[in-house]
Amino acid sequence: MTGEAGVATASALEVAGVVVNFQGLRAIDDIHLTLRPGEILGLIGPNGAGKTTLINVLTGFQVPDHGSVALNGVDLLPLKPHQRSRLGLVRTFQNVLPFAGLTALENVEAGAMATGMARGAGRAWAMEVLGRLGLADKAARRVDTLPFGEERRVGIARAVAMKPKFLLMDEPAAGLNDAEAEELQRVVAGIVAEGECGVLLIEHRMPLVFRLCHRIQVLQHGATIALGTPEEIRAHNAVRAAYLGDEAV
Amino acid sequence: MAEPSTPVAHNPLHTALLLALILLVVAAIAGFFPPALQRTVTQAMIMLVVVTGLYTFCGNSGVFSFGHIAFMAIGGYTSAILTILPGKKEVALDLPVWLEQIQLPVSVAGPVAVLFAGLVALLVGLVFMRLRGIALPMATFAMLVIVYVVALNWQAVTGGRQALVGLPRTTGLWTGFGFAALGLFVAALYDRTRHGLALRCSRESEVAAAATGIDLERERLIAFVVSAMIVAAGGVLFAHFLGTMTANTFYLDLTFVTLTMLVVGGMRSLTGACAGVALVSVVSEVFRSIERGFSLGGTTIAAPPGLQEIVLALILLVILLLRPHGLAGDWELTLPGRSQR
């Protein structure tokens, strides 16, 4: 309602002043981040910059030493991971973490169950999501028998089936070939357009990030060094020096 | 809308139905067996109830329990106390008067005993399910030891070191079959629920399960209570099969045998649970008769006692080495060409 610039909007995922220390090492150093519905925010930075740690803080797998995390104005810190995901804060994993011994359909059904759907409706919805990701004919296959690219899509389908309000994707294109990465780009854009969902995208493929994201936040040594539109980030000197280097973007 | 042409996961109820039909055939054939062999088949049916209960928790959660036989004991003793003649209880036990005077038919005492075991499982599980990793199986083992020691020493209620006798022997071949089939259907129904799916997800990855909105402790607790009640039903059946209760009956031997059945058959599959019970029962019976000895040309040849246990242990070892997911693995008996709605 009061979604004016600079004012904390009620409808957003908000991180303020988060600090995480790992045995004396500062993994995250006073990070602020805002993700709005319908927005794709890229989170980039060299390995060890604290990107995955930040996702862990958001989803409850890592307790921060300082700072706050709120979803649509609700303080998330007292909530456990499974409670946060039921509120619509959904993540995917760098290494997918599928339910390997279960079928593709069961994986996605599990996501549908998190929305509170009945068993039958959940199954129909899971089939629909599998279809959207081009996996309909793989529904009855055990996930550990699928090729890597399809396993990754099952991981994304599981997240999409949860009808996320905010989706945190940890390197969804890692290990995919160019055609699959292209496909992924279409899928992510589709999720945002359709569900008014906000996406936080951690990715090392810069062309993908710069094409897909509305804003990009750059981390280094656990701190934000730049935040802006893709054009602004491309022009940012510190970013070029720290991360993009000679890479053509 | 799901596309009708898509092959979809099997329906556990079909599996339960097919397995129950096989049991029906086995029971019908066993009806023509001599009484001793009939008793063996009946006992196998009772073991199937217990193993089905174990499967419901261990198979879906991937967490071993070494303590479920304690729920058999709780079920058996509860039903014993409720069904033995008041006069006998007065002599053997030292119960409160109201409990001493109660005498219920097994059809009433059994369900009461199962509910009581479920209540115990709920209270114990509320604490146990907070444990992670190896701590949980160890805690279940501790529970088995505690229940055993209590049963062995609580003279007033269990008869202590003396056998509690005089239970109505109501468990026959067909009762055994009926409850084996019922156990299979209860397990299959649980498998079909969202709770069954959620627990299997947590078996594959606890972290991904939490990220998928699954409350690990709650799902494990639900399965723990359901499985404890199925196992307790097995305990009630076994008590009224033997007609006597001793603490030693429900301890390490039975724990070993039932876990062997589950692991050999394949703890991730209901079909596997049945296969394990069948194989272990047959092997046990064969080697028990060899131990008893048979006559060959006028001389009696008998194997040394204990051979049966050693053979079972060897089978378990071979399975663990060569087929760690058991004979069945993930495979389930199912109707050909059928798919679920």
From TrEMBL, chain A:
InterPro entries noted in UniProt: AAA+_ATPase (IPR003593), ABC_AA/LPS_Transport (IPR051120), ABC_transporter-like_ATP-bd (IPR003439), BCA_ABC_TP_C (IPR032823), P-loop_NTPase (IPR027417)
GO molecular function, one term: ATP binding
Domain ABC transporter as annotated: residue spans: 13-246
Keywords assigned: ATP-binding, Nucleotide-binding, Transport
Gene3D superfamilies linked to this entry: P-loop containing nucleotide triphosphate hydrolases
Sequence intervals crossing the membrane: none
PROSITE patterns assigned: ABC_TRANSPORTER_2
CDD domains listed in its UniProt record: ABC_Mj1267_LivG_branched
A Pfam family matched in the record: ABC_tran
PANTHER family: AMINO ACID ABC TRANSPORTER ATP-BINDING PROTEIN (PTHR45772:SF7), CONSERVED COMPONENT OF ABC TRANSPORTER FOR NATURAL AMINO ACIDS-RELATED (PTHR45772)
Entry protein name: ABC transporter ATP-binding protein
TrEMBL record, chain B:
Alphabetized InterPro entries for the sequence: ABC_transp_permease, LivM-like
Species whose genome carries this gene: Dongia sedimenti
Keywords: Cell membrane, Membrane, Transmembrane, Transmembrane helix
Compartments where found: Cell membrane
CDD domains: TM_PBP1_LivM_like
Topology relative to the membrane: Multi-pass membrane protein
Signal peptide stretch: none
Domain of life of the source: Bacteria
Positions of transmembrane segments: 12-34, 65-86, 106-127, 134-151, 171-190, 221-242, 254-280, 301-322
Record carries keyword Protein biosynthesis: no
Primary localization class, coarse: membrane
Protein name: Branched-chain amino acid ABC transporter permease
Pfam families: BPD_transp_2
